[in-house]
User: Fold these one by one.
Assistant:
Number 1:
Amino acid sequence: MGEHTKALGYHMEALEMWKNFYNDGHPSVATSLNNIGSIYKAMGEHTKALGYHMEALEMWKNFYNDGHPSVATSLNNIGGIYMAAFTAIYYAMQWVSTRRHWGTTWRHSK
């Protein structure tokens, strides 16, 4: 987790530099937003990741047309976040279900 935090700091710094150099709608700003979203996804912070990827997607769409590869990359990243979040929820529900079953079995075995 420490390396993710370090990487996040560098990407945040780059984002601010890009924003100061270009306007908010420049592809370099969108790239930084995309990178930050990827780090948050790796850290398991899906809500934050989704926000950064959605912002990048809107910038790509405004700068390029909908068929541009950068738009496709953003859509792919957003889909990956939903998959990761769903998987985390699925396994959490499985764990809760298993714990309930064990608790019920244990109480009945007394």
Note: The mean pLDDT is 86.
Number 2:
Amino acid sequence: VTGLVCLELYKIVNGAKKLETYKNGFINLALPFFGFSEPIAAPSNKYYDKEFTLWDRFEVQGVQNGNEMTLKEFIDYFQNEHKLEITMLSQGVSMIYSFFMPKSKLDERLAMRMSEAVQKVSKKKIKSHVKALVLEICCNDEEGEDVEVPYVRYTIR
């Protein structure tokens, strides 16, 4: 079994790019069964002219020059850089932002730093070893159509 893994590692080290060069191996010693197959590519999605798979993500540096982004700056970043209007933002099971929030709650959260908003909504401290937050976003494109986009890796440290 280890030999089969090593063969696949040699292919990676040699720089093999074609998916067809790799093999999946399944061995069941109780039957004796040895099965091999070719892996399939991850399904891809598209927004505007950008294609992505489940392995892709948005990388956002939350802290720049010692200051962390506010929720409003985060939303503006996606509007300006990716031409996406964020309609909902969540972290884990916590809804950080949504377009249908009451105005008083919305105004309060838009002014907060992202890490503060996450801590307030989730009612949990961000531990000191956490370097980045995984955020899920729902977005509209420029025509107002709902688009599927990758998750966001928001770096805080």
Note: DSSP finds four helices and twelve strands in the chain.
Number 3:
Amino acid sequence: MDGADGTPPQNTADLTAFVQNLLQQMQGRFQQMSDSIIGRIDEMGNRIDDLEKSIGELIQQAGVDEKDEKAAA
């Protein structure tokens, strides 16, 4: 294990500071990953909503086309 300046921690206080710094870095990285994942989930939700809307429009359009074909026959 290295201290902040690249040297091994020499005493308990150095080790404590090193571990606290390491944990803070890990917490920051996990927060970034969490934010990224949540953003991607939100984006996927929006895409799914758009897809459902498009499918609904296609179904409506197909229903209208079927009625037009039956009326013409």
Note: The mean pLDDT is 87.
